[in-house]
Specification:
heterodimer, A: 376 residues, alpha/beta, Peroxisomal Thiolase, Chain A, domain 1, nine-stranded mixed sheet, globular, B: mainly beta, five-stranded antiparallel sheet, three-stranded antiparallel sheet, 2 helices, 8 strands, 33% strand, binds zinc ion
């Protein structure tokens, strides 16, 4: 959908670095979400009572509304706590504003995954997962590992092919004062990283940490009177690929391409016009699948495309400038949306991409989504 | 293996899936097959994903497939598998279409994509007959008599 008459006007996120310093079993995700929301409201100059739409992910809407004293939103519900929902929730916010169901939509997300000991593997699944667990199979990373093993064999990919992505995320995280990990890594440290689901190593995995994100979405007309320049949603598109496993037979290529074709057509923008990319990176191979599906890199060779500096801060297509999910924080895609806004506003400090006018968010997962953000 | 912990990971045997487990005990891979359109499905489900028919039979299928991919688990997610680490998990594309997670019996040191595999049956740690797969040696296939090659 074309949504350039809709804008993100305020963003907020936790200081993930501070929260990571210690686990706290009593940490309240609703409190973290409220803190992020307060920052997002301050960011745009709105008050709590201006919000008339509320979308909660990994949070129950009833508790959220009660905690923040938002009694009568015109539109409200919650979404499951999975990474694919960050793109979906922004799409919903755009549709809600365009349809007139609400004027100011707050999108909130929080997790205390680290403090409560979430492992994203070994937990009880649905009725069909037992057919996998009986063979010791569990965790999204393991299903992604199956895809990456096949990708490696198909295209003759060397053992260290993900190192540039791991190093890039950490380089960027070192320039982000909110990032969990602010120490750079080199090739030797990457190769020394232990295997989790071989061929995937620990440094290919997202962090499990605590934190929250909020952003405020409204019409461009309303946005003009707010504190900062609005960030437009030039376009957004989605396509699911639903099956029994988190393993796509074509590495989500066809679904990504379907989304890309519509998004690029509707916005009149293509990969060459993108100044900065925010790519959902639950596990680093997902970045390769995404770049190929969205036509940034040729099929079968994204691993070479990312190795030559293109994705670095001074390259032509800087990637995951806040450190992504392996360095900044695993906020299931929500913090990548916030980073897109900060880059477009020129608020990214030491990691600012020069002349950043267009940012693309991409998520290759059972629900593929992508948006292109622009600033006037 | 911690048998008690492993037993908790197994699918419950229900009226809906019992024919699958009876097949494992008989040394046969049996899949739900749509009565209307002959589409096979796995795991068992209430409805044909192709034509939405609620009507199915259980059919013994070829037990053949290909090795779509595999990986080696090093992380201790399950106490039951703690002593097995590192262990190999295989992703099999059955000849009839559905994908299946499984393990390989005596895998060779080098595995290849799309290598032919065949279902084999035997008891797990609890004694329940389950399906695993064995890698078939890759040999040139003699064209069947009268087969047309284009
Ligand atoms: Zn059918």
């Amino acid at each position: 959908m074309i949504a350039k008459d809709v804008a993100i006007v305020g963003v907020g996120s936790s200081n993930f670095h501070e929260l990571y310093a210690e686990k706290d079993a009593s940490r309240d995700p609703y409190g973290l979400a409220a803190d992020a929301l307060r920052e997002a409201l301050d960011d745009c100059g709105l008050g709590k009572n201006d919000i008339d739409g509320l979308l909660c992910t990994n949070l129950k809407y009833g508790r959220m509304g009660d905690v923040i004293g938002l009694r009568n939103p015109k539109f409200v519900h919650d979404l499951e706590g999975t990474g694919r929902m960050s793109g979906v929730s922004l799409q919903e916010a755009c549709a809600i504003v365009q349809a007139g169901l609400a004027d100011v939509v707050a999108v909130v997300y929080a997790t205390v995954g680290r403090s409560v000991g979430m492992k994203y593997g070994g937990e009880d699944g649905g009725p069909t997962t037992a057919y996998d667990t009986m063979y010791g199979m569990t965790s999204t990373g393991a299903y992604v590992s199956l895809m990456y093993q096949r990708y490696r064999k198909m295209y003759g990919v060397p053992e260290d092919a993900l190192a540039p992505l791991a190093i890039n995320n950490r380089y960027n995280g070192a320039r982000n004062p909110r990032a969990v990990f602010q120490r750079e890594i080199d090739h030797a440290e990457y190769i020394g990283s232990r295997f989790i689901a071989e061929p995937l190593r620990k440094l290919d995995y997202c962090i499990i940490n605590d934190g929250a994100v909020a952003f405020i979405v409204t019409s461009i007309d309303r946005a003009r009177s707010m504190r900062k320049k609005p960030v437009r949603i030039a376009g957004t598109a989605g396509m699911a690929e639903l099956n029994n496993h988190y393993t796509s037979p074509d590495f989500y290529f066809a679904a990504c391409r379907g989304v890309a074709d519509r998004l690029y057509k509707e916005t009149g923008l293509g990969p060459d016009q993108i100044d900065c990319m925010q790519v959902y990176d639950n596990f680093l191979p997902t970045i390769l699948f995404t770049l190929e599906g969205f036509d940034h890199a040729p099929k079968g060779s994204a691993w070479e495309w990312v190795a030559d500096g293109t994705i670095g801060p001074d390259g032509s297509r800087p990637l995951n400038t806040s450190g992504g999910h392996t360095s900044e924080s695993y906020m299931q895609g929500f913090a990548l949306h916030v980073e897109a806004v900060r880059q477009l506003r020129g608020e990214a400090g030491d990691r600012q991409v020069r002349g950043c006018r267009t940012v693309q968010y991409m998520c290759a997962s059972p629900i593929v989504t992508s948006h292109i953000f622009t600033i006037d | 293996m911690n048998v008690e912990a492993y037993a908790r990971l197994l699918p419950d045997i229900t009226a809906a899936n019992k024919p699958f487990w009876d097949g494992c005990a008989a040394g046969e891979l049996r899949l739900q097959t749509c009565t209307e359109c002959d589409t096979h499905r796995f795991p068992d489900g209430p409805t044909c994903p192709n034509c939405l028919s609620r009507s199915h039979t259980w059919q013994t299928v070829s037990g053949t497939g290909t090795l779509w991919s595999w990986f080696t688990m090093h992380q201790k997610y399950f106490p039951a598998f703690a002593d097995e680490i590192p262990y190999l998990v295989a992703y099999i594309k059955l000849s009839e279409g559905p994908f299946m997670i499984s393990s390989l019996v005596d895998p060779p040191a080098e595995l290849e994509l799309d290598q032919p595999v065949r279902a084999v049956f035997g008891p797990d740690a609890t004694g329940r007959p389950i399906v695993r797969f064995t890698v078939e040696p890759v040999e040139p296939v003699e064209p069947a008599s009268g087969a047309v090659t284009r």
